[in-house]
Design a protein that fits this description.
CATH superfamily of the largest domain: MFS general substrate transporter like domains
CATH architecture of the largest domain: Up-down Bundle
Strand content: under 5%
Number of strands: 0
CATH topology of the largest domain: Growth Hormone, Chain: A
Order of helices and strands: HHHHHHHHHHHHHHHHHHHHH
Number of domains: 2
């Protein structure tokens, strides 16, 4: 049996380079889609529900892609075919998105664009677990964080750069709804996405499934790690039925309560989601009872029920971390333009100036995250991965809450430094902690399932933040950012209770 060999700096660079392109698409989406929605007529309290497409798509796509990539092997390997397919589809979506003639088409394009990004992004997380030994995984995910930050710093600031430095119009021409600065940014993003992913596909060779199995056997024996004992679908049959009925009844009861109290219809997303999960468990139970245990649904749900302890603990951390991020992505433009610039008129030059500044701020926090990607592994070695993550999240929470007290938009640059530290850590530390607890043969599916704890808080945020903003915050979206800051502090406390297998 052989130990998985360490890779050189440039090998890690090449295998991570595709994330530069992925983040171009992701950052353009995050920084500009709310702006596009508002420009096409969306009300501020309706923006979260329009964003629901993104997390729902991730919830469905990532476990499917993870499951398929675990079982794929051919001339181009197991992960690289998905990198390339997603890049082609996402690049096409980026070309179409800024030319959407109406709000409903823009919402549909967000769905397609996010699905395509997910096809490329999910296997990249498993790729690090496949290719790197345990002692290099923090460095591998940190390298991904560097490219994420670098891609985002350029992509988030593109409309600002094109309009301020290159003189591209920042107000839509006659007969157009989206300004040229935004449209050209999306076109450039599509090209970079495809070319960056191609670089990784061509420059990196994957290990075969047999080699990965051999590496895992050596790791288990040398580290004295107990093998993960997984319950079979038949052993889980009673749990499938019991939990299925519980979740289904909870969804029906919550839906009835929403109807009875006349609450916001967006809350049905949560109640229906609970019911659908219950139905999925019951369908899994029925398949299992019929002996149909080899299909993808039963396998994915069985793996979900067999999650390692570390993954369950990280789920709490991820929930509060990504709730905060989604609040920031949805409401930064509205909060800054209304709370600091003092305007809600989306056709005004002042609003577009504020919206561009938000894009620039996003570029700053992503740029600082790229720099922190090289610092965090050092901090993790000096303390621990858990402590490094906790410190980063606390700093990010303070940065997000500071939006409320700042009146000079230029001072928001300081806030974004704190958010950048948290962002760099969110993109690397949880994955570095997780991969040591996962079996090599299920790296893809568990990375896909781990994405549940990224998209579920986003769905929750998209469903409830509009209700909070309208009913509790008096229409002031700045309070959504304060709530996000508190959520990051809770995540920081939660990570201290996680069992990091590689750093016991």
């Amino acid at each position: 049996m052989k130990k998985k060999p360490a890779l050189s700096f440039w090998q890690i660079w090449n295998m991570s380079f595709g994330f530069l392109g992925i983040q171009f698409g992701f950052a353009l989406q995050n920084a500009n889609v709310s702006r596009i929605f508002e420009t096409l007529g969306a009300k501020v309290d309706n923006i979260p529900i329009l964003w629901i497409a993104a997390p729902v798509t991730g919830l469905v796509m990532q476990p499917i892609i993870g499951h398929l990539s675990d079982k794929t092997w051919g001339r181009w390997g197991r992960r690289r075919p998905f990198f390339l397919m997603g890049a082609i589809l996402a690049s096409l979506a980026l070309l179409v998105m800024p030319n959407s003639p109406s709000l409903w088409i823009a919402a549909g394009m967000l769905w397609i664009m996010d699905a395509s990004i997910n096809i490329s992004m999910e296997p990249f997380r498993a790729f690090v677990g496949d290719m790197l030994p345990g002692e290099q995984r923090t460095r591998g995910f940190a390298m991904q964080s560097f490219f994420i930050g670098l891609g985002a710093v350029i992509a988030s600031g593109l409309p600002y750069i094109l309009s301020t430095w290159l003189g591209v119009a920042n107000v839509a021409e006659m007969g157009q709804k989206i300004p040229p600065s935004v449209r050209y940014s999306f076109y450039l993003g599509g090209a970079v996405f495809l070319l960056a992913v191609l670089w990784t596909v061509i420059s990196t060779k994957e290990y075969s499934p047999d080699q990965l199995k051999e590496f895992e056997e050596e790791h288990i024996q040398s580290q004295g790690i107990a093998r993960v004992v997984s319950r079979t679908p038949l052993e889980l049959l009673r749990s499938f039925f019991r939990q299925g009925f519980i979740w289904l009844l909870a969804g029906v009861a919550f839906s009835y309560l929403i109807y009875l109290e006349g609450w916001e219809k967006e809350l049905y997303v949560i109640s229906v989601g609970l019911g659908v999960f219950g139905l999925i468990l019951l369908l899994t139970a029925w398949n299992t009872r019929q002996g149909l245990t080899r299909n993808g649904l039963v396998e994915v749900v069985t793996d979900l029920m067999n999650m390692p302890k570390t993954m369950k603990q990280l789920a709490i951390v991820q929930f509060f971390s990504w709730f905060a991020l989604f609040a920031m992505w949805i409401y930064s433009t509205s909060a800054v333009t209304s709370h600091i610039y003092g305007t809600s008129d989306t056709t005004s030059a002042l609003y577009n100036e504020g919206a561009n500044w938000v894009g620039f701020l996003f570029a700053i926090y992503n740029g600082f995250a790229a720099l922190m990607a090289f610092v965090l592994p050092v901090l993790a070695r000096k303390t621990s991965r858990k402590m490094a993550h906790a410190i980063s999240l606390i700093i990010g929470g303070i940065g997000l809450m500071s939006f409320y007290v700042i009146k000079d938009p230029h001072l928001l640059l300081i806030s974004m430094v704190g958010i950048g530290i948290a962002w760099a850590s969110i993109l690397s530390m949880p994955y570095a902690i997780l991969t040591g607890a996962l079996p090599a043969g299920k790296m893809g599916i568990y990375m896909g399932i781990f994405n549940f704890f990224i998209v579920i808080p986003q769905i929750f945020a998209a469903s409830i933040l509009g209700f909070f903003t309208k009913s509790l915050f008096g229409g002031h979206s700045i309070y959504a950012l304060v709530l996000g800051g508190v959520s990051l502090i809770i995540a920081a406390v939660s990570v201290l209770f996680v069992d990091d297998v590689d750093q016991r």
